[in-house]
Task: structure prediction
Amino acid sequence: MQVTFAGSFTDLRQRPQPILPEFACLGRSNCGKSSLINYLLQRKSLAHTSRHPGKTQLLNYFLVAGGYYLVDLPGYGYAKVSRLQRQRWWQLFSEYVADPQRNLAVLHLLDSRHAPSEHDREVSGWLVESGRPFAVVATKIDKVGATQRLAHYRRIIADLGLAADVPFLPTSSAMKIGRQEVMNWVRETLVIADEGV
Result:
């Protein structure tokens, strides 16, 4: 798979050309977003991972196979940033999801160990209201005992009030689980967009 770093941007007006479909990775700080992006794109350190939540503060664009962008958005819900910075991020998220100029789908990442936060539920509500295609990606399932995973999945689905047609995709970058399912959803979404459905 050919992957090219297309740039980091501070606002929506700077986004790269050409305009192509975008798959945004959106989740709380420390939900395993960078590790998952590296796993999906089969690169060791394309997206920067850190022990310190809140590291990603820009829109990072990766051009995949010349056909679409995978976008690493700043993590939300991290307390150790200024109130003004948090407000800017929420404004960025809401404008990004609502932008009619881009063909956008979202991978909403949630740490499978924890119940969804208020911010998680707020983002999920935005996605439903936007009408954008989105899938919920449960990360770090290796941190949950095999016999407990189904209960954790059901809790996430119930807390978010997910409709039955919203894909729920368990993953673990550490155990190499879930990549095929996520990439299949990406391909299916691209086909539907191409067909204009």
